């Protein structure tokens, strides 16, 4: 299979490419893997270190909205599957700058889709999110039929993209799939998201800014389990269908629990935790029913959260130069300007 991976220099895309080369190879033969990534603040060539050694791998810097570039790549590389990871992915940023989310997540997806459909690329997989379903109360879980009800400009833009992708199936019979996954964690995650931010802050004895009461619930999935699910949907999924991907009940944790687990692993004091002003429109709880992908495609999560979290903390301990380079760069200026002020309103731990 010859695959175009957009957004492959980001967190999940880069883990996916590495997984495909190093672990997925026994089940999935990827003859050629082309990463197309515009290298926004979240894209990082260091995430792809070592992959150049594989002759099947190629990196191309470019934007998914560049139809000419996408068209020439798809033709030149005789691509037979497009997997669209490229996105603006951070909810907090979508509150500050919703337009950039519209541009990449909606317009970009449609450009990619148009060109892929015109060139009759056999499969198109849209990597989406459980956030399109909105927020849950204390019980229940999202199924594929749950009505979409996004809360943020991030999730609204992802929901719009899902609708455009599914419309290509309904209108043209173009063979698309949409996957909706819950929160991922693992190596190479940009330190603006909860787990890598809190691990790296705790390592540096910096405060951990926990939003609101800290009791919002997320279901956590190791990024390698997500990669496996994507390849199962790509190769065996029914065209035109949505597949939910989640970590199961055991992976559902309140943010305070995740925070405490990180502090315990690092042997750091709990007074590093600062309860700060809540995120606007903060979804209370996500939980995903993954029985469809389980029954149809035989997928289930394999990495228990406690094991995966320990490994992830170890990765950040062993790769300090990777995250220190990010935290000493432009990102930190943005973070300090927009978020660090929240610590002024902190109400203790
Ligand atoms: P990320 O922010 O780490 O990476 C996104 C990548 O896309 C970056 O490398 C960036 O440079 C690239 N990119 C952005 N705009 C682009 C454009 N216009 N053209 C080309 N490349 C562009 O994001 P992530 O966490 O790896 O998420 C990847 C995908 O998975 C996203 O579509 C996201 O919505 C989805 N998702 C993420 C999670 C999660 O927990 N992180 C969970 C479910 C779904
Ligand atoms: O559910 C899937 C989604 O998970 C993906 O679609 C998104 O791309 C991904 O970013 C993630 O969204 P969240 O908003 O759930 O992730 P984040 O890591 O930003 O926040 C996780 C929880 O932690 C959330 O309840 C907000 C809280 N939080 C986050 C940060 C960054 C804090 O309390 N403090 C923080 O500093």
Describe the structure.
By secondary structure, the protein is an alpha/beta fold. It has 2 domains: 2-185 and 218-245, NAD(P)-binding Rossmann-like Domain (Rossmann fold, 3-Layer(aba) Sandwich); 194-216 and 250-282 and 304-345, UDP-galactose 4-epimerase, domain 1 (Alpha-Beta Complex), CATH 3.90.25. It is 41% helix and 17% strand. The protein has 12 helices and 12 strands. The chain has helices at residues 11-22, 67-76, 91-96, 98-118, 153-172, 194-203, 223-236, 255-266, 291-297, 305-318, 320-327, 330-338, and strands at residues 2-6, 32-37, 57-61, 81-84, 123-129, 176-181, 183-185, 208-211, 217-222, 241-245, 252-254, 273-276. It is globular. The N and C termini lie far apart (51 Å). The model has no long low-confidence stretch (mean pLDDT 95). Nicotinamide-adenine-dinucleotide binds next to helix 1, helix 4, strand 5 and strand 7.
Give a brief outline of the structure.
This protein has helices at residues 11-22, 67-76, 91-96, 98-118, 153-172, 194-203, 223-236, 255-266, 291-297, 305-318, 320-327, 330-338; strands at residues 2-6, 32-37, 57-61, 81-84, 123-129, 176-181, 183-185, 208-211, 217-222, 241-245, 252-254, 273-276. By secondary structure, it is α/β, with parallel strands linked by helices.
Task: Please give the structural blueprint.
Layout: E1 2-6, H1 11-22, E2 32-37, E3 57-61, H2 67-76, E4 81-84, H3 91-96, H4 98-118, E5 123-129, H5 153-172, E6 176-181, E7 183-185, H6 194-203, E8 208-211, E9 217-222, H7 223-236, E10 241-245, E11 252-254, H8 255-266, E12 273-276, H9 291-297, H10 305-318, H11 320-327, H12 330-338
Parallel strand pairs: 1-2, 1-4, 2-3, 4-5, 5-6, 6-10, 7-9, 8-12
Antiparallel strand pairs: 9-11
Helix pairs in contact: 1-7, 2-4, 4-5, 6-8, 8-10
């Amino acid at each position: 299979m010859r695959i175009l991976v957009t957004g492959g220099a980001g967190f999940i895309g880069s883990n996916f490419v590495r997984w495909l080369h190093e672990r997925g190879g026994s089940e999935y033969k990827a003859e050629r893997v082309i990463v197309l990534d515009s290298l926004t603040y979240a894209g990082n060539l260091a995430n792809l270190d070592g992959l150049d050694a594989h002759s099947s791998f190629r990196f191309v810097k470019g934007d998914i909205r560049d139809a000419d570039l996408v068209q020439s790549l798809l033709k030149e590389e005789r691509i037979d599957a497009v997997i669209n990871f490229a996105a603006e992915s951070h909810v907090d940023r979508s509150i500050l700058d919703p337009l950039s989310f519209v541009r990449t997540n909606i317009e970009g997806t449609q450009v990619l889709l148009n060109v892929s459909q015109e060139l009759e690329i056999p499969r198109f997989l849209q990597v989406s999110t459980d956030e399109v379903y909105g927020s849950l109360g204390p019980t229940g879980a999202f199924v594929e039929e749950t009505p979409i009800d996004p809360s943020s400009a991030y999730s609204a833009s992802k929901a719009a993209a899902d609708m455009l992708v599914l419309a290509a199936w309904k209108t043209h019979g173009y063979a698309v799939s949409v996957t909706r996954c819950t929160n991922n964690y693992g190596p190479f995650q940009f330190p603006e998201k909860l787990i890598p931010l809190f691990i790296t802050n705790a390592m540096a004895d910096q405060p951990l800014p926990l939003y609101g009461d800290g009791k919002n619930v997320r279901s956590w999935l190791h990024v390698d389990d997500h990669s496996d699910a994507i390849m199962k949907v790509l190769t065996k999924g029914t065209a035109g269908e949505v597949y939910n991907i989640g970590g199961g009940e055991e992976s559902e944790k309140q943010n305070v629990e995740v925070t405490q687990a990180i502090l315990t692993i690092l042997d750091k004091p709990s007074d590093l935790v600062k309860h700060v002003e809540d995120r606007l429109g903060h979804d209370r709880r996500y939980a995903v029913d993954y029985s469809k992908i389980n029954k149809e495609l035989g997928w289930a999560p394999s990495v228990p959260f406690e094991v995966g979290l320990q490994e992830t903390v170890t990765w950040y301990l062993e790769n300090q130069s990777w995250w220190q380079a990010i935290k000493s760069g432009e990102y930190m200026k943005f973070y300090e300007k927009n978020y660090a002020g929240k610590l002024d309103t902190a109400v203790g731990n």
